[in-house]
Amino acid sequence: MIKKSLQDISKDPLTPKTQLVMVVGFLAIAWFLELAWLRDGALALGLLFLLFPPLGNAIVWAWYRLAFLMSLVVNPVVLGAVYWVFITPIALLFRLVGNDPLQKKRAGDTTYSTREKTYSPRDLKYPW
Q1: How many CA atoms lie within 13 A of 115 on its CB side?
Q2: Contact (Cβ atoms closer than 8 angstroms) between residue 12 and residue 4
Q3: If 99 and its partner were Cys, which of 16, 40, 58, 94 is the partner (CB 3.0–4.6 Å)?
Q4: CA nearest 55: which of 17, 4, 9, 12?
Q5: Is 47 helix (H, G, I), strand (E, B) or coil?
Q6: pTM metric for this prediction
Q7: Furthest-apart CA pair in the chain: how many Å?
Q8: Residues 6+ away with beta carbon under 8 Å from 49
């Protein structure tokens, strides 16, 4: 993620879209959870964005910083959880059953296999 300065955010044409997404996102959460204070806060944030653009740009800058800091923590945690919850049990199951999809434990001196196939022009046109 590219770190943007406050000057970059004030010139960025996507800043108003980010502000709109923030307001609509908070409104959607407020509607879903039926929280009146969050709805009022989202509307106040929208008015703040409209009336004081430099302050709105500072809020967007802080939002980007928060997202960057969260990405440093959440990505390793989520990817680690996926690894340990899904991939590790599947690998252990494969070992338990004796499945060898890479054919690493083949009987004999070599893992080379000979294919007796005559290729046709159709094989080149439709390789899969």
Answers
A1: 3
A2: yes
A3: 94
A4: 9
A5: helix
A6: 0.59
A7: 77
A8: 16, 19, 23, 56, 59
